């Protein structure tokens, strides 16, 4: 028993040592201390209650030994946790040190930002002052813009007046003469007309000359202003002597055969501007069949050969677009009519033939024709399709002068109405582009043996004669005062009444064939054009409606 007691005492000593060691290990954890205290109390109870149960004590010792081993393992784990915590603390210290450095850096940045903020505030104050100054400058600039816009509108009014003055100085009725070049088709065609021939040739044109399309002796002596044309011819008198004659004519402008469409339009482009400004403008293409009237007015298929109608429309649209910044808004409509045997046909009507009866009406709003199609023209391109439809319906017939001679007058009318949104001013103008039928005489046209062609030629010549009478009467009215103007003598002159009167600007483009076989007809055309050119019309008036 003493040995057991000694063992027990030794165990107790060991236990106390282990308990002391465990107490030190669990100094950081209160729960572990409670367990050690509980274990010590349990050992004390075992010592008091189981002194007689050695086996139970041995079992208890073994149990405690096992627990001691477990506690030792736990102690090792706690030490490992402690080492990790120390490492963590070291890392935290390093982090704190780094954060301290960062804090210092941030403080420096904060100080820099504060200084920058102070500078920015100063700049902002300066910017606010600058904005105030700019606002004042902007207000001054806006007032200046309003003044400039007013000046621009006034300048536009002055420009219109000066433009119209220039046109009036040039003459409210002008005549241009254009000689077409000799074409390849002229060299192989034959003509039945008896005309004058080139100077220095035989007494009369030979069949060979006519078949080869011999060119007439035309010269253009005015090399500076291009306003003169001279025709020379020679013939035999009854006594057999050679007689030479030179016919000289002067016009506002003479275009030689090499002249281009662009050069011709350059001379008439200002009339398109007059139309936009509110004036009535009328441009005629006059001449015998085959002299190039349709080519001049409608042109060819390429951009270089574009005719006066599409070029004039393009110029009107360009002028209207140019005036938009000045407050002008324009609306444009077009119609295309033909006058055939003193009957008006709508070339834009439905169906192949126009069977409606159209009447011409004149009133305060202008000239209108009943039951015709008036097409809106939103762009110059819309005119191309309009021309294509009109040409497919125009009346044509074969004559000796031209295999597909136009036997009717075609009248393309572009109506323009404009309103100025700034001033309330409104204006209306019209542009009439007229391709007249061939002006040749009966014996030259070959229509004498054909009743239908005879009727056509008689009506054509009647309307052309009426046109000459109207222009002559207008000239006499300007010189002598009141005079009756025979507008009603033909549908052509009655349709164009408002575009031929003193309230309009009129241009006649005389087209001439260059062939010797056509010289008689060319001379007749030149004499008629000279008569027109010598006519003085009154001052053109702008068609203006007052401000609203």
Automatic annotation (TrEMBL):
<feature type="region of interest" description="Disordered">
    <location>
        <begin position="185"/>
        <end position="221"/>
    </location>
</feature>
<protein>
    <recommendedName>
        <fullName>Kinesin-like protein</fullName>
    </recommendedName>
</protein>
<dbReference type="GO" id="GO:0003777">
    <property type="term" value="F:microtubule motor activity"/>
</dbReference>
<feature type="compositionally biased region" description="Low complexity">
    <location>
        <begin position="185"/>
        <end position="204"/>
    </location>
</feature>
<keyword id="KW-0547">Nucleotide-binding</keyword>
<feature type="binding site">
    <location>
        <begin position="287"/>
        <end position="294"/>
    </location>
    <ligand>
        <name>ATP</name>
    </ligand>
</feature>
<feature type="domain" description="Kinesin motor">
    <location>
        <begin position="172"/>
        <end position="535"/>
    </location>
</feature>
<dbReference type="GO" id="GO:0005874">
    <property type="term" value="C:microtubule"/>
</dbReference>
<feature type="coiled-coil region">
    <location>
        <begin position="1"/>
        <end position="28"/>
    </location>
</feature>
<keyword id="KW-0505">Motor protein</keyword>
<dbReference type="InterPro" id="IPR027417">
    <property type="entry name" value="P-loop_NTPase"/>
</dbReference>
<dbReference type="InterPro" id="IPR036961">
    <property type="entry name" value="Kinesin_motor_dom_sf"/>
</dbReference>
<dbReference type="GO" id="GO:0007018">
    <property type="term" value="P:microtubule-based movement"/>
</dbReference>
<comment type="similarity">
    <text>Belongs to the TRAFAC class myosin-kinesin ATPase superfamily. Kinesin family. KIN-14 subfamily.</text>
</comment>
<keyword id="KW-0493">Microtubule</keyword>
<dbReference type="Pfam" id="PF00225">
    <property type="entry name" value="Kinesin"/>
</dbReference>
<dbReference type="InterPro" id="IPR019821">
    <property type="entry name" value="Kinesin_motor_CS"/>
</dbReference>
<dbReference type="InterPro" id="IPR001752">
    <property type="entry name" value="Kinesin_motor_dom"/>
</dbReference>
<keyword id="KW-0067">ATP-binding</keyword>
<dbReference type="InterPro" id="IPR027640">
    <property type="entry name" value="Kinesin-like_fam"/>
</dbReference>
<dbReference type="GO" id="GO:0008017">
    <property type="term" value="F:microtubule binding"/>
</dbReference>
<dbReference type="GO" id="GO:0005524">
    <property type="term" value="F:ATP binding"/>
</dbReference>
<keyword id="KW-0175">Coiled coil</keyword>
């Amino acid at each position: 028993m003493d040995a057991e007691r000694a063992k027990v005492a030794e165990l107790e000593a060991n236990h106390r040592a282990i308990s002391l060691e465990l107490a030190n290990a669990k100094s950081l954890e209160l729960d572990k201390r409670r367990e050690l205290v509980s274990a010590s109390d349990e050992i004390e109870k075992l010592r008091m209650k189981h002194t007689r149960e050695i086996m139970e004590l041995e079992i208890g010792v073994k149990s405690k030994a096992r627990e001691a081993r477990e506690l030792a393992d736990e102690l090792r784990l706690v030490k490992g946790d402690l080492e990790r915590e120390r490492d963590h603390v070291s890392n935290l210290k390093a982090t704190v040190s780094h954060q301290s450095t960062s804090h210092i850096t941030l403080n420096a940045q904060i100080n820099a930002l504060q200084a920058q903020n102070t500078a920015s505030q100063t700049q902002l104050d300066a910017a606010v002052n600058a904005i105030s100054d700019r606002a004042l400058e902007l207000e001054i600039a806006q007032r200046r813009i309003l003044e400039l816009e007013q000046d621009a509108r006034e300048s536009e009014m002055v420009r219109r007046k000066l433009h119209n003055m220039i046109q009036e100085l040039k003459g409210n009725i002008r005549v241009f003469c254009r000689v077409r070049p000799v074409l390849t088709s002229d060299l192989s065609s034959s003509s039945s007309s008896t005309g004058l021939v080139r100077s220095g040739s035989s007494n009369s044109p030979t069949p060979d000359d006519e078949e080869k399309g011999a060119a007439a002796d035309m010269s253009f002596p005015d090399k500076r202003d291009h306003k003169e044309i001279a025709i020379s011819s020679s013939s035999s008198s009854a006594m057999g002597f050679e007689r030479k004659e030179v016919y000289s004519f002067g016009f506002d402008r003479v275009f030689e055969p090499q002249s281009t469409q662009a050069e011709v339009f350059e001379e008439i482009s200002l009339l398109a501007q007059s139309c936009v400004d509110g004036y009535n403008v009328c441009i005629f293409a006059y001449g015998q069949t085959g002299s190039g009237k349709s080519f001049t007015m409608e042109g060819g298929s390429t951009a270089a050969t574009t005719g006066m109608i599409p070029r004039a429309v393009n110029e009107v649209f360009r002028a209207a677009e140019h005036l938009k910044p000045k407050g002008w808004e324009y609306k444009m409509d077009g119609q295309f009519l033909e006058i055939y045997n003193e009957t008006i046909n709508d070339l834009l009507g439905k169906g192949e033939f126009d069977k409606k009866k159209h009447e011409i009406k004149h009133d305060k709003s202008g000239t209108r024709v009943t039951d015709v199609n008036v097409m809106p023209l939103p762009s110059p391109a819309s005119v191309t399709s309009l021309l294509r439809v009109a040409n497919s319906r125009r009346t044509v017939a074969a004559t000796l002068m031209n295999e597909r001679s136009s036997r009717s007058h075609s009248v393309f009318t572009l109506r323009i109405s404009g309103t100025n949104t700034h001033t309330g001013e409104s204006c209306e103008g019209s542009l009439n582009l007229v391709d007249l039928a061939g002006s040749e005489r009966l014996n030259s046209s070959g229509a004498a043996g054909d009743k239908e062609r005879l009727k056509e030629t008689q009506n054509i010549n009647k309307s052309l004669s009426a046109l000459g009478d109207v222009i002559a009467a207008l000239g006499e009215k300007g010189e002598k005062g009141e005079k009756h103007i025979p507008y009603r003598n033909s549908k052509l002159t009655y349709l164009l009444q408002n575009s031929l009167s003193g309230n309009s600007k009129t241009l006649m483009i005389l087209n001439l064939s260059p062939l010797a076989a056509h010289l008689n007809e060319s001379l007749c055309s030149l004499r008629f054009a000279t008569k027109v050119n010598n006519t003085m019309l009154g001052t053109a008036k702008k068609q203006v409606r007052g401000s609203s």
